[in-house]
């Protein structure tokens, strides 16, 4: 392979990598995530409403779980988690680079070692910037 061919191949790889990264949506600040709802949250979450509000749950190990409900193909993603004294605020983003399905699937985002003290209420800011106050459920 000649010098020109290697240069052209390298340039093509760089263009492909740049185009793929441009399609990526917002990054999650959670330590882990999974599809579904923790059993401890089911009794506190009104899924009968089409747009169920998020739920924040703190488990016995001190991890915070943020449960949202939205499209499974472009779920709501926690892009910020701020804590100040006894206040928590989560900001949600969404990957809008692809069509979203209308299936309202639950997603749970886990934040290990949540800051203390655990507040009674957390604020969740949605993709439009609107804030909703939700109870923090815990042991």
TrEMBL record:
Highest rank taxon of the organism: Bacteria
Organism: Zhihengliuella halotolerans
Protein name per its UniProtKB record: META domain-containing protein
Keywords: Signal
Signal peptide coordinates: 1-24
Ranges where the record places region Disordered: 31-50
């Amino acid at each position: 392979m000649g010098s020109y061919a290697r240069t052209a191949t390298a340039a093509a790889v760089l263009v492909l990598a740049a185009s793929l990264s441009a399609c990526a949506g917002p990054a999650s600040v959670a330590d882990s995530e999974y599809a579904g709802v923790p059993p401890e949250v089911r009794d506190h979450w009104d899924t009968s409403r089409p747009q169920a509000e998020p739920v924040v749950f703190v488990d016995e190990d001190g991890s915070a779980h943020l449960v949202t409900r939205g499209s499974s193909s472009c779920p709501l993603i926690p892009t910020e988690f701020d804590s100040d004294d006894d206040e928590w605020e989560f900001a949600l983003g969404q990957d809008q680079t692809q069509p979203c399905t209308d299936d309202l699937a639950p997603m749970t985002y886990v934040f290990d070692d949540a800051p203390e003290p655990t507040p009674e209420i957390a604020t969740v800011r949605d993709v439009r910037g609107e804030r909703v106050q939700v109870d923090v459920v815990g042991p």
